[in-house]
């Protein structure tokens, strides 16, 4: 059976999507068959890196208009060798975003069942690792993705507001849902790991502390660093996270 990982953040601007994409490529480079889903339904951005050639979106799957195997697009190039990578995109059109924003709780409850079905269908098709790029915060669509995942990565920043919301989300969502999780402290001002304190229910597992690297922003949205620059500090952190998560899965198995 495959493993599913939700990549989440307490607030926007944490680098969540960039990390999700690099994580997907890193897993593929280890020989895994990987599927990356853009489930940030109200602010999709995976298409900035790899614009899809598909007539079916994740939105359509959640609305019951098509199946997940109709929506995923395989990345066909040597950058994912020796593994495989497929991507399911969210519709970036503003009208589609407005439509999602108007969905009620009944639709969201139905969407959770569909997400669980998506997960089963992908694993049955041979996917080893499902990575879900969620929306930030505590929107129903984000919580659905977290609920469906086996493991949650919280990508956050060392600013006080980010940490405050991170602590509330961990205590209010991850722990009640009994989720294994770890934190990526991104865009740090120091290379030393950032200590996280003040949690009410548990000690926060820190997967990686990534320094603020200005050159990453200058290199553009279309570059996947684990492919183009595997020796970069950011890339090394991503590969370390893959190792740490796999160790966590081995323990749980």
From TrEMBL:
Pfam family, one: AAA_31
Domain AAA stretches: 3-171
Coiled-coil ranges from the UniProt annotation: none
Entry-linked Gene3D superfamilies: P-loop containing nucleotide triphosphate hydrolases
Domain of life: Archaea
PANTHER family on file: COBYRINIC ACID AC-DIAMIDE SYNTHASE (PTHR13696:SF99), P-LOOP CONTAINING NUCLEOSIDE TRIPHOSPHATE HYDROLASE (PTHR13696)
Protein name: AAA domain-containing protein
